[in-house]
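Lab manual, section 2.4: Encoding a predicted structure.

Procedure: take the sequence of the chain (364 residues), apply the prediction step described in section 2.3, and record the output as structure tokens. A sample record is shown.
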Amino acid sequence: MGNLHGLHRSHHHNAPFPPSPAPPSSYSPSAPHMTVEPYCHVDSCLRSLAGKAEGFGRAAVGGLNGPVCHVTSLADEGPGSLREACKRPEPLWIVFDVSGTINLSSFVNVSSHKTVDGRGQRVKITGKGLRLKQSENVIICNLEFEGGVGPDADAIQIKPKSNTIWIDRCTLKNYYDGLIDITRESTDITVSRCHFVNHNKTMLIGADPSHVTDRCIRVTIHHCFFDGTRQRHPRVRFAKIHLFNNYTRHWSIYAVGAGVESQVFSQCNIYEAGEKKTVFKYITEKAADKEEPEAGFIRSEGDWFLNGAKSCLSNDREHHVFSPTQHYSGWTVESSTEKLKKYIKHSTGWQNLPLPPDQLPTTA
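Recorded output:
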């Protein structure tokens, strides 16, 4: 499976670490190995999630510095609703006192410095989704999204100019448009341990070739399960994307699409083909400020291609891909094996977890 150049970080610091400088050419990080699951300590207490994401979203602390806010109603709006909590301007750690379905008539706008924490209940969002519009420092954890209707209905829509975001352990399926869209200069985002199923255009990163300012976008996607979704795992324009330890199976068009100027570093992922075999697709497009069209760049290290999956890699387009070590100093990665596949199948998406205790006073 080739040489493996990921770092293993076995613990998390209390504060997010700054980007590290690019390593010297002689730098030789340790090879990944089977270890404890990622984020094994984040459920020890309520706010243990804060600052613990790996990758580009590592600085997200959400509502760490605010009180706990309780969602007591499954209504679309009004007192005690999710919408009411998310629009408040102050930092909040939002939890749910009820289980059930929230049928949204329009997007819920999640303002800055929020944690939307679904642990302790089973909450499904349908109709529309969550929108992060010029939001920063947001964590979304342990929710289900299913059945979005109407044009532009994404489960989680991140645009414009949002940053420092972590989406963890969500189940997303069957929305009219995308499941997660990250566009319009939104950056420094981690998507982890999510389960994507029963969908076509799964994840778009970078709006279209005219949005050249999307060159700032940086996203880490890891330990996710793309379970029979048709395409876009993800589909990328301009952005830098680090994919590691994901399991993508039985796509219907392609697995990962690299459009104009994108850089995709695919590390120790599992790609298991169904009828369609193409894993990486280069998509040629012309940036609005360039004369000639071009496709993106893909580098694959330690990936496992199963059931006749064909990487379709272009060797002359590997050397232009960034190294994650230029941006962060460590991440929990292991070799792509049957054990990793089993872990991802059973440990992604919404989980039946108790709400951990909190040490700070709470408020309604």
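Check your result against the sample. The first strand starts at residue 68 and ends at 71.
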